[in-house]
Each structure stands twice: as structure tokens, then as C-alpha cells.
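Example record used in the benchmark description.
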Amino acid sequence: MFEEIQVSEPIGLEAYESEVHLYADVAALRAEATRLVPKLRGRTVWMVNSTSQGGGVAEMMPKLVSLLVEVGVRCRWGVIRSDRAAFFPLTKRIHNMLHGQDGGTLDAHDRALFECVNHRNASDLGSMIAPGDILVVHDPQPLALGALLKKNHDITTIFRTHIGLEHETPITQQAWAFLKPYAETYDATVFTAEAYVPPFLAARATTIRPSIDPWSHKNRDLTPHKLMGVLCNAGLQRVTQPVLTPAFEHQAVRLGEGGDPLEDIGLFFRPIVTQVSRWDRLKGYHPLLLAFVELKRRLARGAIRLGDRHARRIELARLVLAGPDPSSIQDDPEAHDVLRSLTTSYAELSPELRNDIAIVTLPMQSRKENALIVNAVQRCSTVIVQNSLEEGFGLTATEAMWKRAAVLGTHAYGLRCQIRDGIDGLLTKNPEDPNEIADHLDALLADGHLRELMGNAAQRRVHAESLVFSQVAAWLRLFDAL
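Model output (C-alpha cells):
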């Protein structure tokens, strides 16, 4: 059941050091590693989560593991598997409840299922770990695994959760009550923000911000030729000239009836509003769709002055709602329903509006190709939105900020910890209000100078707080403290 994931990251610290604005970050990490890594000799650090692709944890893991290995830590990564069809719907309910969303009652049957799947995975991992090892369990899905292994093995355990809500509710309390018997056995817990820590874990909790790899295929700079090549290879741009690289075996797919073919979205030519996320109802896709429709209708009814450049910009603007092919994400069974609901609403629009909206699923068979597609689409975007109703920490927003994009987020706690309203981007107070979202889209599309100022500030903020080098150093300090 348990599966170890092999990590092969070709870019190492020496390459990052060659870039002048990353040199100091690498030097600081090397200094921490020189001081702390010798104390870890003989131990293996195990990183365990629930999926190897799709979502922020899977995005971060390869580079986090590879850099820990490069600085001298013996580190391995594995994911839990389940043949019980009800397991991931259960953990998705728990996920939503930790965000304050009603998930019903968690009962003894749910606990038996949760422990059964974790026990089978713990049995597999138990044959691989050794005394003194450090086990880091990411998010609730494998939480019981660490508790089970702690009983029978002389290991140090850390629970790292990437989700949470900044205030307690009866729903979050119920979710934490379900998880408490497992979480309280861990030697330490790691949260994205101090506000997410439940009281019973406060004494052993620390915070580490998620981070991005600036040179990953999703975040690296793309020359105009490379950018156009990726769009053509992915089926997102019509091929009118010879392209150096071959078409991707698996291409992006536009869903729904009506509208132009996928290659005619106009990514390279039109003002583009984009959101790239999992197909999750907490990501606020549906209100964003309605907001874009409202923006177009304002133009049609004369609320936006005709004849000026901004009116032309609104006329030409298109909305891209993109996310992973849901069949490829084992731990997110809700995605199919969210996507089906979104395409149903899309199908009810007029042909003209459907023509200006593209709902796109992105292939996941190749991690590299998926990352390049997301990178290219984001770099073609005039405004990048993360309209989350709740968000523990939005790596998609971090990635957009690193690209100096104009970002529209929400007051979800994880987003407002990243984006300073009016400085690094704009924040919507009510992500379910299409009119407020439309007002912000209108303002950002109207002012190119504002977009540039916010984009520059956003990149500086990511560089200061959210690059992978600082996260690796934070993990080394935590291992040392334990």
C-alpha cells in the first residue's frame, strides 16, 4: 500500500548560487546546514503525505526532499495508498471541516475506516524505518500512521498540517476532536500560521511558511520562444510556424459546449483573467465565473464607457478557469462534482459569453509538462485570481506573485497573510459576491501602472519570505530542536 516516491531534481544549490539575487539565500542555507546537519547523522527523515501529484504539498515535496539530501540529510518521501473507496471522501470531509465547512458527523465507522487504511500503510512503512528516524506526516490523511508507528518504534514524529482556520467553530472543534487522539502523540506539530493551532497542540507547535522553488518548471522565466512553444505543445495555441519541440502526448482539454476551439482562447493576444487551482468548492470558481459575466454585462449595458481603451480591454478579455484532470488526483474525490457543476453553469450562458470563458483541465501524466503549462498560462495572464472562500496558504498565489502578476486574492486568512491589500495585490472581502469581484477585476484591468507596482512588490515579498531555501533551513532548525 505505502509507496516510496523517487526524487530526481537536476538543479542543485550551485546552480542557484550562480544567480545574483539568490546567492545570499543559498549562502544562508549552507551556513545553517554546516551547523546543524552533523547532528542528524545516522537518521533518516521520512516525509509522508497522501499524493505525489496535484496540490501544494505534492508540488513542494520533490525540491524540499532533494535539497535536504543535498545538504547532507538522509531524506526519503512516500505516499499512502488506499483501496477503500470511502477513505478519501472521508479525509476530504475532514479537510473541509478544518476550514469550517460542514461535513456532517464523524462517527465510529469513520474512525474505523481511518485507522484501517493508516494501519495497512503503517505496516509497510514500519519495515523500512529504523530507530532514531524522524517521521514527518503531512496533513490529516496519514495522521494515524504516525501515531501507530510511534507506539512500536523509537522514532521522532512531526505532524505538519497545511490547512486550518484562524478561529474555532463547532465544526472545526469536531474535526480536531476526531484527530486529537493521533495528533497529541506527536513530538511536534508544524502549522502554516499560529492562528491555525488548536489549543491542545499549542505547547508543541511551531510555524513554517510554505515555499516555492524559483527555478522549478512552474516558476522559472520563460523566453518568448519557449513560452509560445509550450502553448503550442499543450494545444493552447494554434501552430502557424514550425515549433522546435514536439507536441505533448497529453494535452489540455477545454470543457463545455460552445465557444472557440481550445487553441483560439487568445492567450498571447488578449487580456486574460486566470485562476489555476484544484477543482474544490472552497476555491470559489463559481463566484469568479459569475463576476466575469457581470463585468461583460456591465460593458453591454453601458456601465463601462464605450470608445476608450479600457472598454476595448473588457470587450477582448477572456477568463481561463484551469485545474488538474480530476481523474488523476486520488485524494480529492470532490473534484468531479465541482467541475460538473461549473460546466453546467457555463453551458447556461449565451454563446457570446461562453466564447469568452474557457474551463480547462490540465494533464497530470507528466509533472514537468503540467508545470510548464501552468507557468505559460500564468505568464500570459493580465490578472491572476485566487478566489478562495478559505485558504490555509495559497501556493498558486505565491507562484503568481513571484511572476510579478497582478493578483486578486480574498480575505481568507492564508491569502491575506501573503498579499497586503493594495500593495502586493487586491483582496476581495466576500469571495461569494460577484459584484465585488467584478469591481476589483475592473480596477486591475483598467490600470496598467497599478498592476506593475503591485507585481513588483509581490515578487519582493515572495523573495523575502517564501523561497524554498528558507523553508529547508527552518526544517533543519526544527530537527535540531527535537
